[in-house]
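Bug report

Summary: structure tokens for Tubulin-specific chaperone D differ between web form and batch submission.
Environment: batch mode, default settings.
Steps: 1) Submit the sequence below via batch. 2) Compare with the web form result.

Sequence submitted:
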Amino acid sequence: MVVQADMEEPGREDENTEFVGLGCALELFSELDEVLGMIDQLKTIYTTRKAIECAYEKFRCVLTLYQEQPHLLDPHLDTILERIILIIRNKDEPIELKHEAFKYLHVIVKVRGYKVVVRHLPHEVSDLEPVLTMLERQNPKSTDTWETRYALLLWLSIIVKIPFHMTRLDSFQSTPGPSTADDGEKRKTVIQRLVDVCKLYVLVGDSSRFPAAFLASHFFTRSDVKDEHLGPFIAFACEVVGSPKSDMSAQCGALAALAAILKHGSREDLIPHATELLQWLVNSNCRKKDIPLIRQLGMKVVQRIGLTFLKTRVAAWRYNRGCRSLTINLNAGDATRQIGAQQPTQSNPEEVGEDFDIPEEIEEVIEELIQGLQDSNTIVRWSAAKGIGRVTGRLPKELADEVVGSVLELFSEQNSDSAWHGGCLALAELGKRGLLLPQRLGEVVPVVLKALYYDEARGYVSVGAHIRDAACYVCWSFARAYDTEVLRPYVKDIAGALVVVTVFDREINCRRAASAAFQENVGRQGSFPHGIEILTTADYFAVGVRSNAYLNISTFIAQFEEYTLPLIDHLVKYKVDHWDVAIRELAGKALHNITPKSPEYIATCVLPQLLSRTTSIDLNARHGAVLAIAELLHALAVVGKERNQTIQEIIGEKFVQEVCSLVPKFKERGQFRGMGGELMKQACCVLVEKSSLAQMPFHDMSIIDEWQFLLDDCLSNEVATVRTRAVYALPAFLSEYYQHGDAEKCLRRQQGVISCYTGKLKAVNKATRMGFCLAIGSLPGFMLKGRVSSVIEALIGCTEITESTLKWAESRRDAVKALHTITNTIGIAHGNKQSDPGKVNKSLVDAMYSCFLRCLSEYTMDSRGDVGAWVREAAMTALQVLTTLVVKQDPTLLDACVIQKMMADVSQQAVERIDRTRSHAGRVFSSLIHSDPVVPHIPHHTEILQIFTQNLCQEELNWNSAADTFPLFIELLRLESYSASLMLGLVASVGGLTESLVKHSSSALFTHLKHLQQTPEEMRRLCGIILQVLIEWINSERLSDSLLTFLDRLLGSGCVHSVLVDPEVSFSSEILRVVKGVVTRSKDVHKLNRGVDVLCQLVQVPGEVSRRSLTQLLIFLCHRFPTIRTSTAGRLYEALMLYGDDAGLDPTGMEQAMTLISDTEWDQAIEIVRPIRNEICDHMGIPPPKVVQKKSNTSVIS
């Protein structure tokens, strides 16, 4: 049982307690006292809406904990229900309280089930009248009290079973005095009242119609009611279902009532109505209704009519397995030890024989059920399958066998997937009940095995998962139904099929269902080969991960020879050409893993089949075959190496030539073009890679040039996966065919590849640059020997931003990745070996550091957002790799200034906007400060290690959490080498838009600044840095708005108030100067609003700064944009309320000015609001701005 998060409640468990994974681990109902207390508490809180809602949620949460183990409530049900019934029975309690009590009762019913709860409800004669009266007073259409009606109907269903004649319970008969005609019209008998209640509530639209149907089944089958009212009620229900005016709810309720009556009524009472009811149901075409629930209820009615026609009996011919001891079954062994099977138990002597008549209507009933098995909805098919099982169990052997034959006819190619699914469900039901005789297993098992593999592609999806799941259910039911000896002839086929579905099915539910069926067979049959070993590996949870099932579990199972060939054959037949690309890829890898278990079969049988499929017109078959061939060649080569055999000796020269000709044939047929061209290119890249790893004998052959051309073409493809496949294939291809063979030819080829690839780095296509950057990064070391300098310089050139490559962040990212990959491949030259042509020397190290640090400042933006973050993250990784390599090889190559800038820039990235980038920067920063050997020249290394301890960084700190990382990096502000970079990063975060980011970053910064109140020198230093950042970046398109928002939040926090009002510091005046310059020439409404916010914050600075800020704000009151005038008026009013006294304004004049500001509609024409603005200036003692005429006769406000 997994408890959802919304079921937790305050006070029950610690807030960190998780209920996930409890399963069925509860042992007893431990909250009895708490539940009883909540019921008693109803009397005091029912009038308070909030309190009663919280109490109900708490009650629901407690009981829902036992949803998976409801039987734990049984010992306490009487106690709990007694408390609730006590409230309901009390006539003095208000109806609102009773409604809440009924809600609690409904929760109990939902958890434990109505069939159990109803048996614990009181059913005294005295309860009938008050319960019935209360139900009659309810509003059937009310949505607030439906639980009350539900519970009352359920309660009535047990009360009406009292063994007294209903006419004795009419309360008006005991009333003294003569009765009149009017009394007869007003008063109804209890029977009539109950009839009316049943008819009313089976038609309602809420859940009350189901307990109403339950009530009807008990009431109308009473001996004193059935004669007079059963027939009319059945007619009433039929009329409702057949009426075109009846809505869905009414039809469902009426059918549910009919089904319940047919279930609980006696056969003698129902037989007179059965024929007519069946005819009506067939004519009403319930099977063709659009609503699945109506069709399902129709199936229930049909099967119960059939059961009514047939007497209750246990078929003497049924198969009875007899002994079902798991111990005996397991002792049967894993197909290696066999013991005498348990003989089927003989039927009881009182079981009825075969000499009885079968009504003609049964044929029609079975036909309806067979049709129901083909319904489009699962719940209808389930109901029909159960009906087939129940009805067949009362038929003679010959007729039952005909039913089995009819079910088997559903498994034809012409029938729909629904028919196959329904047929599987029916077979499972028949098998469970012993109605599928062993003689039929020869026909049934092949059909079930076929259903286990059913998978029909329809467009981009497939149909068949539900059929395979149902087929697993059939196998599960067979394990419980048949004796070991009966199933022994079919064990090999069933075991192989179940294992195949367990590891190779696409859907997780099918893999798990097959695993469960296999487990059941191992336990019940005891004859499945190697069952225990397989089960311990292929359990319910292990098969949940598809890749694990394909690549690991299948390999383990393939070691058992009974399963090796079935696994291989299934992959080749069904999965290699599967409609899902991912399955085809996994199938090839699975074949690779299984090949060592049967290499001869793979080489002689499987490989020829796959090669023949390469000529198929089906893209899926062609693609899957090439992938599988590639994987098999590699696997066979590995096997051959262990046996000292070449690949030619294993597969033969013929197949070697066929593999060699694959790529040219695909190219000749044009199969690298069109919609499927990308897939075929990917597959052929895999073929090139695996053929190279298999050391196919193609050295110095023309096919090498074909393969090289293919890889080069794929490297410039627009599809990323095609480029990636080519990059993966390139190292193996070059290592095998460009290193071995004719030395001069290999050298020319190597030079040609390097020249071509470095030239492609200047391509005018982004995808081409991306592909060839990654390709150069994947080159093996021998290809770079003597060419390191030219390759690195070309890659560095690719990282530079030009006008034409401004938006190509991905190509720059891949170039950075290639640089650090190459460095990792060939290594760093030691100080005294700088001339080594195969290593990276000091000049190249300096050039790469310069490149990576430049990339750390890239903030390219496009429609996807900050794509420059990809480049920055790659640059941080590259700096980490390069620094680690240099420190291990020769730390003297590191320059102190470079290391200082690197650490500062990385710390800046650790406090910026993007969560992923911050997390990556934090990990890089941690790895650098804790590097072994130690990175030299790190500024303030000792102080940093005190903040970022090794244990904190590696175990405790969550780098993805802003709440954890910001407080730590804020501590670096006191270190001069990091202050400027950190403040620049904090500007972006504190001035950002994301609520959580702003919350954590601003909280950490403002808390740090408040702690500096006692150290004014440090506070002034940080304010100077803020001012420096403002002056340098205010005109930046990326940071301009963030800077203004940062200043607004900083000045409004009060953290820097002491510096802001200090007359000896120019902090506030410089902020005013810079902000005024920005907003005066800006037309950006957003930026103007942010500027107004900062100017309003500067009103708190007494003296000239406040006066100049107010002047600028008053100018904005007549701005040409009405929205700016309106927003400025609102913000100015708030600023005067907060800081008016600090600004030194006359209180009376300020009050009058604020009145004018609030009373004026500032979106009116400027000519209307300008006089009002000037009047405000007079009240505030500020000269009104004047209209200055430019030489171009354009007026501006100054």
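Above is the batch result. After comparison, the two runs are identical; trailing whitespace caused the diff. The first helix runs from residue 32 to 45. The radius of gyration is 42 Å.
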